[in-house]
Amino acid sequence: MIVDKIENAQLYQGLHPGIDKALEYIKNTNFSDLPFGKHEIEGDAVFVILKEYETKQIDGNLLESHLKYIDVQYIIEGVEQMGVTMRTDQLPKKAYDADDDYMLFDESYDIITVKEGMFAIFFPDDIHMPDMTTGSPSHVKKAVFKVKIQNS
User: Fold this and answer.
1) pLDDT confidence band for 150 (50 / 70 / 90)
2) Record's superkingdom (predicted)?
């Protein structure tokens, strides 16, 4: 997992070509001109989902993990907390869904706060729960990039 400000994006250049594309897209896009929903950047290898919502309380929510895609989550407006832990040998509470690329876990986790202008990168071993409130609900506008781990 990586959490940082977008102005430090160059520190992560070369990790993965798709991550490079996602971070460049963030730096070069006026998100106010982009409609909500899915936008392809490089077919199914790199795409972004632009959304907005109110953060929520964490009661009963499960953490997620992916196998095919790396998540790059960028906060355009607002602030939210995210639950995170490492995937080791835990068994998922909901088995892996290959079509939608996720499995769900009921595990203890640490909390990080991600503010406007910051991004978080979640790799397959990073179990995470986004969209959490920092105390009271907050309005968030976010870009979630999906970066295919390898073309197959």
Assistant:
1) confident
2) Bacteria
DSSP letter for 116, please: T
Q: DSSP 3-state assignment of 21?
A: helix
CA distances from 69 to 53, 102, 108 (A): 23, 9, 23
User: E strands of the chain, at which residues?
Assistant: 2-5, 37-42, 46-54, 63-65, 69-77, 79-86, 94-97, 102-105, 110-115, 118-122, 126-132, 139-148
Q: What is the pLDDT of residues 87-133, one digit of tens each?
A: 999 999 999 999 999 999 999 999 999 999 999 999 999 999 999 99
Neighbours of 25 (CB within 10 A): 19
Structure tokens at 146: 């999906």
Q: Model confidence over 19-41: pLDDT tens digits?
A: 999 999 999 999 998 999 999 99
Q: Show the tokens assigned to 123.
A: 């790799």
Q: Where are the domains of the chain?
A: 2-148
In angstroms, rounded to a whole number, what is the distance separating the alpha carbons of residues 19 and 80?
22
The class level of CATH for 2-148 reads mainly beta
